[in-house]
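During the second half of the funding period, the structural biology subgroup turned its attention to how the target accommodates small molecules. The most pressing case was calcium ion, which had performed well in the primary screen but for which no bound structure existed. We therefore specified the complex as follows and requested a full 3D prediction, including the ligand pose.
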Amino acid sequence: MKQAMAVITTPVARMLQRLRAPSSKRVLVHEILWIQILSASIVGAFAIGALYWGGQWVLQDNYSRWALQWTEELNELGSPLYLSDDSEALLRLESFVKKYPEIGRVAYFRPDGTPLFSIDGDAELGPLTRLPESRLEDAKALVGNDQPYVLQSSIVSPRQFEILAPVWTESLADDGLFAFDPAVALTESKTELIGFVGMHLDFILFHDRLLANIKVAILILLVLLFAFALYGRRALRRALASISDLQDPIQELARGNLKVKFEPAEHREISDIVEALETTASALSERDAMLMELANHDNLTGLFNRRRFMEELNVELANIAVHEHSSALFFIDLDQFKYVNDTCGHHAGDRLIRKVADELLRSVSDEDIVARFGGDEFVILHCSTDKESAREMAEDILANMRRLAHVEDERVFHIHCSIGVTMINRAKANPDEIIAEADIACREAKSAGRNRMQFFEKSSHIVERATSDVGWMNRLRNAVDGDRFELRFQPINRIDSGATRYHEVLLRLRGDDGKLLSPDAFLPSAVRFGLMSEIDLWAIRHSAEAYAEYVEESPELRLSINLSANAFESDNLSDFVATVFEEYGVPANRIIFEITESLAVRRPRHVELQIDALREMGSKLALDDFGTGYSSFSYLQKLHFDFIKIDGSFVHDILNNPVDQKMIKLIAEVGREANMQTVAEYVQDAASLELLGELGVDLAQGFFVGRPTRRPLYKTTPISLSSRRNRRSWQH
Ligand code: C2E
Ligand code: CA
Ligand code: CA
């Protein structure tokens, strides 16, 4: 079997396609990185702010301590200068000022606030002015205090300060050397203000240094942030690599490639996602496979369906066009499959179809394509073959099918088939026409008697059949309307005594050329044209007429009339029979109706009712063609027949076929048990007749016993001694 796989774009695949990120979308790595850099910047800014604030605070603290220390030193250094022009003191003062760059100017004032002298540092300051009164007062108040100076910050710059401190001396209240009492001296010391010292301090230098440090800190922070960003990007990329790695396989998946391989992920979250995706992909591919199976296969048999078969046929047609070989297409129809369905139900029918499908697969080679077209129709594409091997293959299939026994509800069904074959070559390009040809050939095989194969012949059959069909229809119609049928009577004799028991009524059609046609030649067409039931009624009426005609010379006359399945199509068959019998004065118990085995097995409800009605009238019933299709002994008892007619195919070669002998013996035994008489058809010689007697068969019909004749003849069969000896006490 050829199998092919096509990629199906599933709805899920289309959904995945929509999920594919277009390039304008945000990038996860960048976003995470931005959040991190932003938070690092905020933290950095706070740190720098804190650094600045802390620096300021430390500076402030330092200022006041230095101011205190310097005021004290200047007090000491400056006080001698109030008394004399001590040049040494002046030098010390100058070097002091030089030592501290923060000191812009040191100025000494007289107690009334007028400047005494000043020493300037590097700063460019204005001329020294008299101290304002208010400041003088403030400074004076500090004499003897712990806080030795007043501090005034500059309006121009917050880092510049003016410090003013009183310069004072302390002397003991009593300076008499001998009576010196340190305790008194301490409490009663006298302070004397000698002037003021002013200092201009400029800490801008420190502040600038602080700012410079902070700038460096900011720079370092920025460099760190940049390095962090670079590193973070790499680290994030690496961390998110397993997500990025999913991008390609997911896109592949979206394109419909369900065989895509996902790399195993290191991270738990991602490996969960990968696992979910893999499960999804495998579920999808399972579903695809299922859809594929549904789209291409018949779900009862698993064979290709019609759709897929037509695809394969098209491929083969293309092959033929290139390679110029020929192939064969078989159209196979099961003969009377519907009986199994009707009798045993649809499940039984399904089982049989599956069995037939298996048998067909076994009968063909791997290159051949077998498909089910629905119902009981199968097709086979037999590639690269000629007519002769196609015929051989068809014969093989027929032989295999004949061997196929199907047991259902204790019944054995022999399913045969009809095969129509058409050869495909370059001249044929239309697949539908090819199928139609094989179908026509199959129908011809059916009407030619089923269980056979038939080649499609364009020139002859189609035209011939078409015209002959129309011709046949008119002939049959006219025969029914114009009484062109004739009846023949074939005797059925007892084997033990050789006496005629009854006659079977057989139909003939007089042809235009005056020749008689046998029923096998025209009855299949009659069935096809829907004329069969009318023909049955015709036979019943004319049999009754014949009975009335011949009963006078043969009072023992009994007639057996064949009924087809179509006879039961009208619901009032028994009414018709009753009316006709009454019209011709036929006692119903002198008439036997023959019903084929297939119809008896099928036993649709309406048929059963009519059979019962016929039996109630007093007529007898015979089961015709027993053994041909649906034979089962277990149901023989259930059907109340008076006669079982063993099909001629078991009889005509009985002398050479021990299996047939056994079969007939068995039928005879079962028949006796079920109180039915057995009739053997096709008895063509004395030896067969004798053997049939030995096997326990009651009655015989056949050319040896008597050919069908215009009028019922009575001719006792010559019987041998041995069969006389076998004469049985059981008699009817
Ligand atoms: P069947 O009912 O099985 O009838 C027996 C057939 O076997 C008859 O063929 C008969 O002539 C033939 N036959 C009997 N003994 C021998 C023999 O020793 N050798 C040979 N070669 N043939 C023998 P026939 O008359 O051609 O009928 C064929 C079939 O046509 C019948 O088979 C029956 O199914 C159907 N048929 C005939 N007449 C009627 C009828 O009036 N109504 C219906 N519905 N069917 C009929
Ligand atoms: Ca018959
Ligand atoms: Ca028969």
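Two results from this model are relevant to the next phase. Residues 582 and 588 are 9 Å apart (CA to CA). The first strand starts at residue 103 and ends at 109.
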